Amino acid sequence: MGLPSAAGLLLLVSALITAQASAQVQPFTPDQRQALASLVSDWPTAGAEVDASLWLRKVFLQAATLQILQRPAVVPQAETCRVATRALGSEQLSLEAGYYAAQLLGVAGCTAPSNSSKAAAGLALASLGSSGAVADWFHATGLITALQAMGAHPGLSRQQADDVTARLHKLVEPKSGVLRAGAGKPASMATTGRALSILADLQAVAGSPAQQAATEIVAAVVKGLGRASYGGAAADDLDKLEAAALLLQGLARVPSQPNPLKLGELARLLLDNLEVGTLEDAYHVMVGLDALSSMPNAPLFITSLQPFVPAFAQAWVRVRVADAVGKPVHGCHVTMLQLAPASNGKPVAGKAAMVEVEGEAGVYAWQLPAATEPGLYRVSVEAVVKDAVSPAAHAELVLAVQAKLSVSELRLELEDAVGREVHRLALPAAGQGAAAAAPISLAQAQQLKVSFGLKAGDQPAVAQQVVVCILGKRSGDYAFVPAQPDKTKRQYTAVLSASAIEKQLGTKDRRFQATLLVGDIAADAALSIPFPDLLLPQSGQEPAKLPSGLAKPEIVHQFRQPDKRPPVAVAVLFTGLAVTPWIVLLGALKVVQPSMKGFPTTRRQVLAATGFHGGIVLIIGLYTLFWLHLNLLQTLPVLGLLGLGTAVAGHTLLQGSANARLKAA
Asked: Per the database record, which ranges form the Ribophorin II C-terminal domain (predicted)?
């Protein structure tokens, strides 16, 4: 294993810039457009004869996506028209299949036969009257609108349009502005997008009350989107991409939309999912971006073109402003709001206008103040479209102001264990390699102290990564020893000792290569300064392993000491107390002299007497078992059953005795 390079160390610290830059949403690039077009073009389109409904949906998604990407369709027009026309006239036509068939005929530039159109329109009108789901209304109105565009149907009547609009108005959630999918169903962004598209289809034929209701629905949706984040509003949507695409399609067809920064949340979802793997996702991404770019207040995106600039040179900070599909935007008012160090956030430069660069599409620049020190900064940038009120884009960019990093006053000192200097070592002369210098012998009781200062240009500097790398010559293993700055942060110190090196790398290497590595995001290049090799004394022999076959020491177990028992007299006393009731019982029986003279003679009374006395005997036997074997959980259920039976038998016996005495009296 080789020594890590200084450039590799700089990659560790510059990863922060890369990660922060990738967090910014990037517009649609030509390479991404080409990859998406290849994915959609290569999607298999066979299967029209097997399942016409699925085939229609798949081919429509493919054709519509390629149309937005400005790529030629891969499915022959004649075959598309034939299958779509046959599907419209099928007796098993479903509403969704009819919708995709009509949409596909429109995309392919075909016309629908009147008989097929009549049957499909009848199915759509029936669904509008009977179904309570917004998705069915969306497919029905879309089907009829597509047939109307082809001249195959006159369209919906005013009464039908007013009825659908009134039902949509009842489904609006007052607080969020999101529409429910139906009565008693949850609200979703996908349903809201479908509802907006339905209102756009009905706008031409709806009456004045319905148009007023449609205006209220659109206003509620726009107001709700302005208050809440898209992620929270789309919590009930299973497919977030589909929901975003449907919502943007609907918003693009109504007269008012949310502000650009709110639309930017939807755009981020689409642009973050350009690496799609299914035809449905590709369609949703492209349809959503196409609808977004058609809006008058579409959001813009600001990206940094120059995340690294030199310090003390009045460098220009350049950004590009583009729409969601990557088209550069000219004539914007772009403003640098503030420049602040990433460490403390305290602004070092205030608000300043950025100028548009001539000859570069959508590129704007601002000159960095000459006194800006090297370091990592955050730049807040805002873009406003000409004659617009609200900003169309806002971005927090990361900027690294870099300077040449150098090491000053580098010293190598051998010290004893308590830190007293033993010898100051001479560094290799300029042009002489460190390998040619005499190695440094480091005794067990000594330590090598490396001290130096850092400068960025002519100013003292503090670097993010300052380490001494120790590389074993034989094994190739390496370890890092960090260099710590002092209180003034003008001097760094690293201490190397034989014991510390052996603790990290073991004892198999005795010769090591030492290199000082310095890396910082504010450095235009990392530093790598080699030292003479380090020689460690030979370590003593390792203790031999104990043989495993010898007898092991005897294991002596210590058991718990038994508890102290009470005196014998106490035990006898309590035993007597427990036996006393039995003695009393036997004595009472002897005095009473029990006999069978009073035993009942009738059948019912005999059974009752037998059950009562037998129950008592069984209960006494259960007590004995509880004392010897059973626990409380096992005893209580049986005791309950025996007690209930004994009580019933005793009650019957006493009732019979009372009746017999009454008769005798």
From this structure: 559-661
- Mean pLDDT along residues 627-636: 90
Q: Domain limits of the chain?
A: 43-155, 157-297, 301-402, 405-427+438-535, 596-664
Helix (H) or strand (E) holding 601: none
Helix, strand, coil percent values for the chain (each to nearest 5): 45, 20, 35
The gap between the terminal CA atoms of the chain, to the nearest Å, is: 117
Same fold: 301-402 with 405-427+438-535: yes
Q: Which residue has the tokens 């059973």?
A: 630
Distance CA 198, CA 169 (A): 12
CA pair distance 634, 332, nearest whole angstrom: 85
Residue 538 and residue 509 in contact, taking contact as beta carbons nearer than 8 Å: no
State the CATH architecture for 301-402: Sandwich (2.60)
What architecture does CATH give domain 405-427+438-535?
A: Sandwich (2.60)
Q: Is 539 helix (H, G, I), strand (E, B) or coil?
A: coil
**Rounded CA separation 107/101 (Å):** 10
Place of tokens 């005929």: 105
Q: What is the pLDDT of residues 59-116, one digit of tens each?
A: 888 888 888 877 665 556 777 788 788 888 777 888 888 888 888 888 877 777 777 7
Please give the Cα distance from 228 to 497 (Å, whole number).
60
Question: SS3 of 162, please?
Answer: helix
The C-alpha angle 67, 71, 76, rounded to 5 degrees, equals: 80
The DSSP line for 208-225 is HHHHHHHHHHHHHHHHHH
How many whole angstroms separate alpha carbon 198 and alpha carbon 167?
Answer: 12
CA distance 268 to 301: 10
How sure is the predictor about 282, in pLDDT bands with cuts at 50, 70 and 90?
A: confident
CA 185: distance to chain centroid? 26
- Structural tokens at position 146: 């597509």
